[in-house]
Specification:
- The chain is an alpha+beta fold and about 200 residues long.
- It has helices at about 10-20, 30-45, 60-70, 80-90, 115-130, 165-180; strands spanning about 95-100, 105-115, 135-140, 145-150, 155-160, 190-195.
- The strands form two sheets. Strands 2-1-3 form a three-stranded antiparallel β-sheet.
- Strand 4 (about 145-150) and strand 5 (about 155-160) form a beta hairpin.
- It is elongated, with a radius of gyration of 20 Å.
- It starts with 8 loop residues before the first helix and ends in a 7-residue tail after the last strand.
Amino acid sequence: MRHALKITASALAVVFCLASSNAIGEELVTDPDLIRQAQKIMYNLNYDFGSIDGKLGPATRKVIRTLQGKLNMRETGNLSVELLIALRKQTLPSVWGAVSAAVDGGWGATWNYETRRSAERAAKKLCTEKSKKNCRILSIYGEQCAAAYHWDGKSRWGWRGSSGNSLEIAKRDALADCRAHRSESVPCELLTAVCADGRHKN
């Protein structure tokens, strides 16, 4: 499924004008609406940078550099017309899951959601029903799996996600991460392990 941007007439004219020039790779995008739309695509590619605010802050620039590296572009941290066009061509994930957890051991997990935002909201709602602390969120998509762990008598917690397609790897990585951050006398507890496509239920 292709992702289409809704661009204002003036901003669209700028893009077409720049695209027809020889300097397409060098021209920078500064229009807040176009920056915001680029941020929306980056968010829906599962990158985290804070708010979708139409500003090129440090976190957004860090994601841009990562994307530029993956797309074999010069890693400047600037939003260029070339990158914006490349982002518009990306196919966005259509299957999402999320794990939400808090320091007191409250958690929630979702899978088989159509959008990242809906998966995150549902997971956080489940977590906040069990916890009075701040619930943080980890998103996964496609065949990705993730596991959340907890240790030290409801005073510490953490999680580890797997970029592969194995639930067992997610569990293994989570426990390894837990053991690396607590004393040997404190046991690690897996809170949950899920896959975005729901196959952990099979």
